[in-house]
Structure formats: C-alpha cells, structure tokens
Amino acid sequence: MKKLLTAIFCLFFLGIFSLLTNAATSNENEVIFSSLKNGSSKDLAKFFENGIELNINGNQGEYSKNQAELVIRDFFKKYPPENFEIIHEGFSGDQIKHYIGTYTSLGESYRILLRGKQQEEEFRIYSLEIIKY
Length: 133
Prior knowledge:
Helix content is 42%, strand content 44%. With 133 residues, the chain is of the alpha+beta class. A 6-stranded mixed β-sheet has the order 2-1-6-5-4-3, with helices on one face. The longest helix has 37 residues, at 2-38. Residues 1-23 form the signal peptide.
C-alpha cells in the first residue's frame, strides 16, 4: 500500500511539472508569434541563441544575437507586417522544435521557418528563414 501511495504521489508531481513546463512553452510561443505579427525584432531577439543562422530570401549567414536583431529589424521596416499565422509545428525529440508560418506584408506572402530547442526552462531560436513565395 505504501509503495502504491508513493507511486501515485510521484505521478501527481510529474503531471504538475509537465503542465507547468507546457504552460511556460505556450507563453513563449505566444510572445514569439506576436513579435512576428507585430514586427518587433526586439521581442523576437530575446529568444535568439547567441549565434543564429538567418536566411532572408537567399541571403544567408551566421549572426550574433545583436546582429540578427538588426537584420530582422531592417526586414520588418522594409516589409511591415500585415499578418502572421502558424501553419505547422513539429517536434524532433524532447528539445528540438520547428514552426512554419505565413507572414504577409504589402500584399505579398513569405514562408517563415523557425527552428529552436528547449534549453532548461527557455526556448532558444537557432535558425530563422524568411522566403518569399
């Protein structure tokens, strides 16, 4: 009986921990997606890795977090957001996540592919592609 109660107790706390982790990830996703929808490079850059790979319409490169924020800020200035919508999300293991979305600006559509990984309690973006289609 004591072992059963211990097992139930452990499962209860694992369930609570899982719910809290999913809630934190959900809040991060909301901030990331709203920063793309609102054109906020500053808010988006909070989730960048210290080194991030960017590909904007074929112009590729590795950037520091600060440099990447400037590149994204320039993109948002040239192509102000009208809308952003997630069309797919996927997971590879527990830590690697990717999101595919459609960004609309000046009547044109862009495909956004965002790749990141969960590190401890934070989601970090290590790759961002913005391709006009």
